[in-house]
Write a structure and sequence with these properties.
Oligomer: single chain
Helix content: 25-40%
Structural class: alpha/beta
Strand order of the largest sheet: 8-7-6-9-10-11-12
Distance between the termini: 27 Å
CATH superfamily of the largest domain: NAD(P)-binding Rossmann-like Domain
Radius of gyration: 23 Å
Low-confidence stretches: none
CATH architecture of the largest domain: 3-Layer(aba) Sandwich
Number of strands: 12
Shape: elongated
CATH topology of the largest domain: Rossmann fold
Number of helices: 11
CATH class of the largest domain: Alpha Beta
Number of domains: 2
Mean pLDDT: 95
Length: 331
């Protein structure tokens, strides 16, 4: 058997792949022309497959994608072919869920405001008049500054997409004492999560204080969050997107934030990347932007390699592969 690697990987990674592949020959291709030539008699591929490569393949049975997302990997001929595609889903779940709660905690405790104040050396408690001293008028009285913070245990978390990332996000919400609603077409959810179907999405949006988009990009989720849908959310709610940028219509989200349809947004992915330097979102005080870094972690590289090596061993020994993609659904 033969495995084609395109594009080429480091020598260290190649040595570990060779150990896992046992008697399977591994050939690297540094460019597409070489890949087209080498794939003719390859049984498997690790890397990116192009239409020209698929057309030249005579024996190809399995492709291990180097990514979790499939919208840019799949093309019609591959989707229609019998070639099995596996991906890297699952290796980022806890890391991205941590990023989500970074956004949530920032908004709940107003860190996004206080960090900006720090840059101006401004000592000001949100909800309190400038110069006003802390204190309460009497027992049971609510001070204005108390209203500026959000208690997570009093909040509802709506998670759109309960795959690996969504499920880990939901579990963290439960650990903080939040009421957690999940929207997903599948029939199960982490214990303690109230599961809803996609036809109940608007109902979930109307109940949630934080809406986390963790769904994959599919034909059904493309621009799922337009102006009309965003207006289904509470005006006091925050939307957080760590799924795919195209799930949220960028112009509509911007308009909603400018109009005060929602309280704010935590965004790691965008319909246009990089986000243009002159885009209004950069200057909005109720928006936190990270440059598609939610999956960043020193652990990811080793997890990525471990998934590849596990599937290599499985392929060589005829065992079921992990992370098989439903090519019709894009995940």
């Amino acid at each position: 058997m033969k495995l084609l690697v395109h594009p080429a990987v480091s020598e260290r990674r190649l040595r570990r792949m060779e150990a896992a592949a046992a008697s399977m020959a591994i050939v690297q291709a540094h460019d597409e022309a070489r890949a087209v030539a080498e794939i003719a008699d390859a049984d498997a591929l690790f890397g990116y497959l192009t239409p020209a490569m698929l057309k030249a393949a005579k024996k190809l049975r399995w492709v291990q994608a180097p990514t979790a997302s499939m919208e840019k990997f799949l093309f019609p001929e591959l989707a229609a072919s019998p070639v099995v595609v596996t991906n890297m889903r699952g290796i980022f779940s806890d890391v991205i869920a941590d990023h989500v709660f970074g956004f949530i905690l920032c908004f709940a405790k107003n860190f996004h405001c206080y960090i900006r104040q720090q840059m101006q050396a401004a000592w000001h408690v949100l909800g309190r008049a400038p110069g006003e001293l802390p204190g309460y008028g009497g027992p049971g009285e609510v001070h204005p500054s108390d209203e500026a913070a959000i208690t997570l245990a009093d909040s509802t978390l709506g998670v759109i997409g309960l795959g690996g990332i969504g499920a880990e996000t939901a579990r963290r919400g439960l650990a903080f004492g939040m009421r957690v609603l999940g929207v997903d077409p599948k029939a199960d959810a982490p214990a303690g999560v109230w599961l809803r179907r996609f036809d109940q999405l608007d109902e979930v949006l109307g109940q949630s204080d934080f809406v986390v988009i963790a769904a994959p990009h599919t034909p059904e989720t493309f621009k799922l969050f337009n102006r009309e849908r965003i207006r289904k959310m509470k005006k006091t709610a925050y939307v957080i997107n760590v799924g795919r940028g195209v799930i949220v219509d960028l112009a509509d989200l911007t308009a909603s934030l400018e109009a005060g349809d929602i309280a704010g947004a935590g965004l790691d992915v965008f319909e246009i990347e990089p986000l243009p330097a002159d885009h209004p979102l950069w200057r909005m005080p109720n928006v936190i932007i990270t440059p598609h870094t939610a999956a960043a972690s020193p652990r990811v590289a080793e997890r990525h390699l471990a998934t590849l090596l596990d599937n290599l061993r499985r392929f060589v020994t005829g065992k079921p592969l992990l992370n098989v993609v439903d090519k019709a659904k894009w995940y």
